[in-house]
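Final report, Chapter 2: Outcomes

The project's central promise was a pipeline that accepts a single protein chain and returns its three-dimensional structure in a standardized token representation, suitable for archiving and comparison. That pipeline is now operational. To close this chapter, we reproduce one record exactly as it appears in the project archive, with the input sequence first and the structure output second.
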Amino acid sequence: MKRGFVPALATPLDENGKLCEASYRKQIEDMISQGATGLLSMGSMGQQARLCSDICPEVARVAIDQAAGRVPVFVGAMDCSIARAKQRMAAMEDLDVYAFVFTTPYYGAASRDEAMNYFKALAKSTKHNIMLYDLAVVTQSKITYDMVLELLECCPNLVGIKSADLAMFRKLVLNKNIREDFILVYSGLDTFDIAYKWGIPNCLDGMLPVTPKNTGDMFRAMDAGDYDTAAKCLTNILDLRDWMFAHDLWPTYSAAMNMLGYDGNHCPDISNEIKEGYEELVRAEMKRIGEL
């Protein structure tokens, strides 16, 4: 992969829970035009765990079709068991997926052995690459440095890991036995500029699609060695994220996406309606950071 950012795409749905295809295509095109070097379809911010299983292949197909080979498309297929994850992969096996992405099994914490059994079985069950997705804050189970090393030994189609664990990434970067094409995608949004400066050039987060201008400007600045400008752009993104968390994340995020021209509902179906007056506040925040 080229240096740069991998947006965790939001999945826009209509009132019947179906994909808003035009909106999704616009989001993808805007991300690529801002310099995205890869796309994550149906990650955690893309509601993979909440989508109806019958629309997942369609979401992946549209992402791959719109990318048109310009950037690799990573597709979330995580689930709570080997059998269910295999079903997800099988439904998308005929697509040009660059890699299926897997967290540890969720719902209940998995032991190290259980997580390893899960990853090894899934790697053997697909012709595609696989990628690890370290999201312990949600799954309750951490992917550790030693697990990555063991999986690299037995899973030749393991191509990378996404994590916010900077200490683990430091070990992987310094380990001369790790193959050079192993992809490290850093998801610690608060320190994107620091990680990029010190040799971890691929970053991923769900805030990137809702801040396309700041995201594009930040990565162009970092690529040019202008870390002052990059820091200002990242501060804008972090300010918006923190504001959204303080004002009910999902409905404010969805409202901001709509303001950028991405129609549809970007929230889980259990989310609240946006509170009265919040839409005007969202617009003001988006204008303040230069996105509108």
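Archive annotation: The CA atoms of residues 59 and 179 lie 32 Å apart.
This record, like all others produced under the grant, will remain available to the consortium after the project formally closes.
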